[in-house]
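Before the break, one more example. Copy the sequence into your notebook; we will annotate it together after we see the structure.
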Amino acid sequence: IYPIDLRNQSSQSRIDLLYSDNARKKNEKNPNVGMLFSHQLSKIVLNIEHYKSMDLSTLNVIITNAGTEASFDLTTGTLLPTTEYGDIVFHVDAKASAGEAILLPETDLSGMELWFVIGDEVEVYQFSLEEVFEINAFAPSTMYTYNVTLFTNETAIISDGTISAWIDGPSVEVTAQRTEATPPIIKGSKKTPFTVAETQVSTGRDQVWVEGYIVGSFTSSTMNSFLPGATSESKATNLALADTPDETDREKVIPVQLSSGTSVREDLNLVDNPDKLNRKVKIKGNIASYYSVMGLRDNKEYEYAD
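Here is what the structure looks like once it is written out:
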């Protein structure tokens, strides 16, 4: 049984489930196998533009009530029923001109919505997928493409929707009305950053915000080298972040990389800035393995949170 977890969309290739079952009747006399793989999940692609070329660099796209976890039976080639549902944040490119998400196939899109959130809810657009009668399911091995235009007259029009790539389907046009409703929480956004405890159990996320208190640093590349406080032995290449100030338990801190030449390193390292000890900060980076635990790497942006 192969577990499927689609909550982290930062690497599409990592979560794209491919399966082949054509390696049959092979033996030492007939050993060559031409493996034929097929996609087992569904994919949504959004091509996004603003009617008056508004800066969309802070755009987040969310699909709600989507399947986030399931399992795949490698013996039978069967996708087992969804076990968890929730909100999924699309992977959006640097210019926010395109977004994509790999999803579990769905036979019923009732209750599923797409939200487009610009900045700290500066503008919010929403539409319900169940209103699109031409597309009432997400099929396996199918990519759904929507060309999205956000209009300054407070209406987002998604047109030329086609199911393409593997299976051709209908074209649809849908309109998303701008709304004053509160959008789904975007975990890892500046407004709702990850805590240190949440970071520790994360499976990895790219370019998200983490919030915590600067409580020390590490004298070498191991967690055992955690050095609480700001001392003459503190290092400028990293930080220790915790959910509470004055934390001394290394089990309750995460390592934060301070890359050379970044403002994060220049302003926050405890060698040059001992006064930053116990300051509460938000740092944007990649949650990934660091010092053999989940930490924060490739950090280039921060702000004080106290």
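Residues 161-165 have pLDDT under 50 and may be disordered. The two ends are 46 Å apart (CA to CA). Try to locate both features in your own notes.
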